[in-house]
Design the sequence.
């Protein structure tokens, strides 16, 4: 930028044009960086942070299934048992629906693998739970005791496996969200 030999008016015009050009380039770079950060933040929220709520709702549903099962095999009033069997049926339906909702937000191979493990664990858990309910949805104390033993010895490990598989997906989402946050911080 050579200003020598220029009249003051020309120098001022040229200087202002240079300043405007530099400011424009800086503004465009800033806007592009901001757009990238917003896109990454939006992606992190949609794909990793917000799905945590869906996963938590899924966990709540299968925990409620477990709670209903405990009541079914523990209560001594057939009317209460029948009510809980009906509630349990609804909870199983809700659990399966919540499981499907989780899949809509999975965007990574690790997430897909974790989702499949959850599905396998869920089906094993629900099958054993149905078997236990079939035996223990009665006021016959001997049948209830058999169902309770099965719940402790057979169902609890399946519940814990389902919980571990679900927590693994949550941890994958947390890790990916942190990676996206780090990426945004660099920009």
Sequence:
């Amino acid at each position: 930028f050579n200003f020598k030999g220029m009249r003051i008016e020309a120098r001022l015009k040229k200087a202002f044009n240079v300043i405007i050009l530099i400011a424009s380039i800086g503004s465009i770079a800033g806007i592009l960086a901001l757009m990238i950060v917003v896109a990454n933040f939006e992606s992190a929220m949609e794909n990793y942070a917000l799905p945590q709520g869906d996963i938590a709702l899924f966990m709540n549903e299968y925990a409620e299934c477990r709670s209903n099962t405990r009541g079914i095999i523990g209560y001594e009033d057939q009317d209460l048992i029948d009510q809980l069997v009906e509630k349990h049926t609804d909870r199983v339906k809700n659990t399966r629906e919540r499981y499907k909702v989780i899949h809509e937000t999975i965007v990574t191979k690790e997430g897909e693998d974790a989702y499949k493990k959850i599905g396998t664990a869920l089906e094993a858990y629900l099958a054993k739970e149905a078997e236990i309910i079939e035996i223990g949805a009665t006021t016959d104390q001997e049948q209830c005791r058999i169902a309770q033993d099965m719940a402790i010895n057979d169902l609890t490990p399946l519940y814990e496996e389902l919980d571990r598989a679900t927590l693994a997906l949550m941890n994958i989402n947390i890790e990916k969200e942190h990676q996206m946050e780090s990426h945004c911080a660099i920009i």
About this structure: The radius of gyration is 29 Å. The chain has a mean pLDDT of 89.
